[in-house]
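Ex. 9. Protein: DUF3017 domain-containing protein.
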Amino acid sequence: MSAPPPPGLTRPPAHPATAVLLALLGGVALALLTTWVAGPTAGGLLLAADLAVAAVLRLVLPVRVAGALAVRSRGVDVTTLLVLAVLCAALASVLPLPPV
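Predicted structure tokens for DUF3017 domain-containing protein:
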């Protein structure tokens, strides 16, 4: 049997909720980068997709894994995220762009 690692060198296991939030934060960062590179329409649509993914994750994941996505009841959280996703997509689609 091997000796246990010395204290201070062990790392606590990551909580699954942390991975969910980091993935969604990565999506927001990608949407911001896309907005900067490709324009506000593409970035807004990507942000809407990230909100829709958050709604699906809140719908299918248990509360202990959903973490900070679980704020209210499941129905209220999913409805709120989907409404925000649709509104964000609609705003990104009708956004007037200046002529190039």
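Check your answer against this statement. Residues 16-38 form the longest helix (23 residues).
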